[in-house]
Structure formats: C-alpha cells, structure tokens
Amino acid sequence: MIQTELFKHQWLKTFRAPGYYKNLTVNILLGFFALYMSTILIVLGFNFPKIIQETTPQYSAAEAFNGMLIYVVLGALMIRYFMQTLNSLNLQPYQVLPVKRNTLVNYVLLKPLLNPVNYVTLLFAVPFSITGISKTYGIAGALGFLILAVFLIWFNTLFASYLKRKFGSSTWGSIGVLAFIGIIVLLEYLKVFSLFDVSRRIFDFILSSPLITLSVFILPVAAYLLNKLFFANNYYAENFNEKVTKKRTYDKSFSFMERFGKQGELMLLNIKLILRNKRTKSTLYVSLLFLLYGLMFYSDLYQDKPGFLFFSAMIITVALMLMFGQWIISWNGPHFDALMTKGIDARDYVKANYNLMMLFNIVSFIVTTPYFLYGKEIITLQIVAFLYNMGVNTFLLLFFATFNTKRLELNQGSAMNYQGTTYKNFLIVIPIMIGPMVVMGIASLFSATQVILWIFAALGILGILFSRQLISLCVAQFLRRKYAMCEGFRKKE
Questions:
Q1: Is residue 205 within 8 Å of 212, Cβ to Cβ?
Q2: Sorting pLDDT into bands at 50, 70 and 90, what band is 102?
C-alpha cells in the first residue's frame, strides 16, 4: 500500500539522517529522562487513589478524576497547540509519481497518531484504571476508561493540529487560546461556574455504558474532518501565497530600538528573528508555559521545602532568559558568517545579547508578580532569584553559549526537536538551576536559608555592579571561540 511505503520512507529518513548518530550522548540522556518520567507516571497511577482520599475525601478516586478530566483535556490541548510540531511531507519526490493527493493528505494527518510519545499518558491511565476506576465501574468500566483515554489522545492530537494550521501563524490566535482557557479557570476559581461538576457528570455518564464510551469516537473523527476541510481549502499553492502577502511585519513595532545605535539594531534583529521563525516562536510559547510553575510549587505541599520553592522561583524568573540564552549565539548560526563580515564590534554584539537577556529577565519578573499574593516568603524568593539571574546567570549563559557550535534550523518547531542540541545544553542547567536548589536544600537542614538568600542576593547585586568587567570577560571568550563557532555553524546536520 502507498500509505505503508510513505511511513517506511519517513522511518528510513529518520535513521539515515547524519545528525541522528552524531547526537548519541543527547539521545542517551533523553532515554534516561524518558525512563525517569515513565516510572513517575506509573507510580503516580497506582497511588493516585490514595492521594485523592487524603486531599478530597468527599469524592472517590474515579469521581475526582472525572471532574478533572476536562481540565486535563484542555491543558493537554493547550500544550499541544504551543509545542506540537505540525507534520509535513516533502512533496517533490512524489509529484512525478501516480500518488493521489488524498493519500498524501491522509498520511500527513494520521502520522502523528503513530508517535509513541502521544501515548505516554497511558502509563498513568493503565495502573489508575486498575486501582481507581475498576472499584467504581468494574472491569468493563476500566477497559472503557482506557478506550476513552485513547480517543481523547487522538482528538487532542488532531484538533491541536487543526488549531495550529488555522491560527498558529497568528499572534491573536495564540492569545485567544490562552484567554479562553484562562477565563474557564478564572470562573472556576471565583465559583461563578464549576466546570469540575459538569465534567464529573459527563464522564460518569460516558463510563456508565460501553456503547456510550465507544460513541466518543465521534470526537477524533470530527477533528479529522476539520483538518480535511482545511486542506481542501488551502492545499493549492496560490492560497498559501495569499496568506504570505497578508503577513504583517514587526519592523514598526520595535523601530524605537534603532535609536540605541548598533546594539539597538542588533537587539531589533534578534526580536524580529524570534517573532518570524517557527522554532523561536515555539520556544517563546514553551517558555511562557514555565511561568505557570508557581501554581504547582507554591502550594502547601512544598511550604516546608525551601529548596523546591527556590527552584520554582528560579524557573519562573529565568525561564524566558534560559530558553533563549543557552542558544543566544546559535540562533544566528545560519547567518553568523554574514554578521561577522559587517564590521560589528565584538563588544557591541555581546552587549546586545546581554541587554536582550536582561530584558527577558525583567519581563518574566514583572509578569510573575501576581505570585506575590502567596506571601512575604514568596516575594523574598522571587526578588532574590531575579537578582541572582540578573547578576550571575546572565553572564554564565553568555559565557557558555560560545561552546555551542551546532547550527540551529529555525524553520523547524521546537517541540520534541533536539536538532542542534548537545550534552552541553544539559550541563549548563547544573550551575544555573540545580546548583542553587541543592545549596538551598542543604542550608535548610541547618536552618540557614536566610543566610544563603542574602548570599545569592549579594552575588546578584555584585554581578550587576561589575557588569562592565564581566562583559569584558564574555567578549574575550567570544573572540577566542569566534572561528570555532563560524566553522561549526557552516555545517548542516
């Protein structure tokens, strides 16, 4: 069959790619991480009924999960919308073959459903169906729950692809998705409208009968048909060209930066690069999701764990800067040789990147100030983390970014995309994130958390005061590594 041949071609393309075997270390690290996360999901699935019994004793495990299920579906849909890479196909080799257009479209739509990553949630669903669902609905209900989970995964995968194809290139579309989910959460929090109760009743009704459970299959079918309709209206080249001509530019929005000379112009170029390329935009959306970590870590569960609280404060305030900072030079890889021939002073280039990361840090801090409502302790942690990021982590990122010599392909999405990633990108996380958390955890054992906070704050302030000297060190490092970076960025994986 043609479909089988298409999947075979894609499989061979993956394992024959030169970069697949070059990044063996990264693949091994990702394998250990996947094993770690899989273990956590399995253990959580078996123990989730006990957690429900302790936190919400008025509900059974099945009732509580049914109430949360719509939120889980919406949350997964939002994550997929921002992180899921749209499937594509190189049409040129097939244009001279007798392959129907409908066959190619079906391949593009159905290929994501075969990705094993989509079914990671089943590692939680299978043990939970045994320990939680079967006690309420029996063995038939447990099997129905697993079928329902698969149907919802298919629906999320297909519907997220449709939303991304329809609105993904539009900033307003992305804002609309966030606003819709934010309004639902706000209404629940203010007790104006309880989606929890609605979800509990809906899924209780669905799991009450195997026939009703099977009827949920209409959701992925509807999402599939929406995608087919989109391709029917936009498959032809002339329609895509119309969209390109209507695309707005960002030149006027940030033109004020040109007043700051060469550094302002370089910052403007980097901002345009972020807003215009698929991979940088995906990275921006992912880093914005990290700003929500406080909702999880600032709960009562971690109040007696200063190490985790400070780790959360670091993630929230450093997320945007870290996601871009570790590749701050690599983003320019495709045109790095051109930049180096433009007579740009090395100090201006490094200072422009420094100013951009400082801007990211300030924006993250301002956006996350609502977490101050959690109390004085959280205010202190976030201010200390902000100062430490400004005075220490910024320079660490600038210094170690010169060791990344892998070219990044900016026209690819960032979700599950490790092209251009090496073990060095994982090592930089140790001094920036893991180190401070470990130090804070050890200090808490000796009741010295306040002393360590003062030390971190002092290091940050000293880094800001001596920024000129630290930038000079980064400039010297950039000049030492300049030609190695030029050579590395010329190579395509």
A1: yes
A2: confident
Q: How many CA atoms lie within 13 A of 158 on its CB side?
A: 27
Query: Are 200 and 67 contacting, i.e. CB atoms less than 8 angstroms apart?
Result: yes
For the chain, what is the mean pLDDT? Answer: 77
- CA–CA dist 302, 442 (Å, integer): 16
pLDDT in tens, 429-439: 777 777 887 88
32, burial (CB in 10 Å: exposed 0-12, middle 13-18, buried 19+): exposed
Higher pLDDT, 150 or 345: 150
Question: Which tokens belong to 282?
Answer: 């995906």
Per DSSP, 327 falls in state: T
Q: Are 368 and 382 in contact (CB under 8 A)?
A: yes
Full-model pTM = 0.56
CA angle 167, 168, 171 (to 5 degrees): 85
Dihedral sign for Cα atoms in the order 153, 223, 281, 419: positive
For the chain, what is the largest distance between any 2 Cα atoms, rounded to a whole number of angstroms? 73
* Contact assessment for residue 336 and residue 402, using Cβ atoms and an 8 Å cutoff: no
* Dist. CA 380–CA 313, nearest whole Å: 10
Within 8 A by CB and 6+ apart from 419, the residues are 19, 408, 409, 412, 493
Residue whose C-alpha is closest to residue 355's, from 459, 261, 461, 458: 261
pLDDT in tens, 48-90: 888 888 777 888 888 888 888 888 888 888 777 766 666 666 5
- Domains in the chain: boundaries: 2-246, 255-490
CA–CA dist 31, 158 (Å, integer): 26
Determine how many CB atoms are found less than 10 A away from the CB of residue 133. Answer: 26
